[in-house]
Specification:
Strand order of the largest sheet of chain A: 1-2
Distance between the termini of chain B: 24 Å
CATH architecture of the largest domain in chain B: Sandwich
Helix content of chain A: over 70%
Helix content of chain B: 25-40%
Strand content of chain A: under 5%
CATH class of the largest domain in chain B: Mainly Beta
Radius of gyration of chain B: 23 Å
Oligomer: heterodimer
CATH superfamily of the largest domain in chain B: Cupredoxins -  blue copper proteins
Structural class of chain A: mainly alpha
Keywords (chain A): Membrane, Mitochondrion, Mitochondrion inner membrane, Transmembrane, Transmembrane helix
Order of helices and strands of chain A: HEEHHH
Number of domains of chain B: 2
Largest sheet of chain A: 2 strands, antiparallel
Subcellular location (chain A): Mitochondrion inner membrane
Number of helices of chain B: 3
Strand order of the largest sheet of chain B: 3-2-1-5-8
Protein name (chain A): Cytochrome c oxidase assembly protein COX20, mitochondrial
GO cellular component, one term (chain A): mitochondrial inner membrane
Number of helices of chain A: 4
Shape of chain B: elongated
Distance between the termini of chain A: 51 Å
Structural class of chain B: alpha+beta
Number of strands of chain A: 2
Strand content of chain B: 25-35%
InterPro entries (chain A): Cox20 (IPR022533)
Shape of chain A: elongated
Amino acid sequence: GIGPIHPLQPEERQIGSVKLLGFLDVENTPCARHSILYGSLGSAVAGFGHFLFTSRIRRSCDVGVGGFILVTLGCWFHCRYNYAKQRIQERIAREEIKKKILYEGTHLDPERKHNGSSSN
Amino acid sequence: MAHAAQVGLQDATSPIMEELIIFHDHALMIIFLICFLVLYALFLTLTTKLTNTSISDAQEMETVWTILPAIILVLIALPSLRILYMTDEVNDPSFTIKSIGHQWYWTYEYTDYGGLIFNSYMLPPLFLEPGDLRLLDVDNRVVLPVEAPVRMMITSQDVLHSWAVPTLGLKTDAIPGRLNQTTFTATRPGVYYGQCSEICGANHSFMPIVLELIPLKIFEMGPVFTL
């Protein structure tokens, strides 16, 4: 998974992890569990819905598998995009906090410059 | 460092490694979906009653299974190239360390700090103290500051070696007669381990790399000089 700090020890992390097809760690990969769950739901809805309308078992299974892949991919990209946006915002916030701690009270303090210009 | 029987990547200690882990997750999800599709196709093949072996002229299917893999490859290639170019960004390193591979130890030169040079040998099992890591700990670690861009110049004095630290996302070949460069910025303090990653003789497995990353304030006080 990502991130330097994990509350569990490596052995505990291994016990809790579920690896789909033996390699996809859905517990420790951000967005994986969410995508797979929605994909499964999408697959069930699409497959069962197709069967209700057509009564064709084989084709409904195909629609179910296709639905799983499409819904999983869609949720995955959507979630990862938001995750990337969140990480960028966290980094900006971290940098701003660091700058504030460093420059507060000095002549480089942006708040002091802003207050000075507004009072003028 | 890796724990016993670890298969996955180690936690990231540099921004590049964080990006690599993100890319790895992305590629693994695509691989999982492809495997799922292939397993389903295999299941269908093994359970079908249809036995016509002279199917021809399936233009639509052939178009789909040509275009779709091309799209998948583009989806994988774009983030990969992004990270590739990110690793080559010039970020004005604070200082430079030279790492020279030998059979079978590393030499480090801190030429920015008055020409400090030292060798780094693996600690033999008989010299290990309680808590030391077998085949990983060394007598002299590479001490570096956190959150400062560092340039590593890597070369070899005899045969091919490779200087690798997985948690930083680094692996650079040490080639005799050539100076390779890599840069990194560590984001958290700690002790990080790597091992020689190019076969170099009998003791190739016994020339590890250990980085000790400490806060910049403490690094500037000069602990690296107390050898």
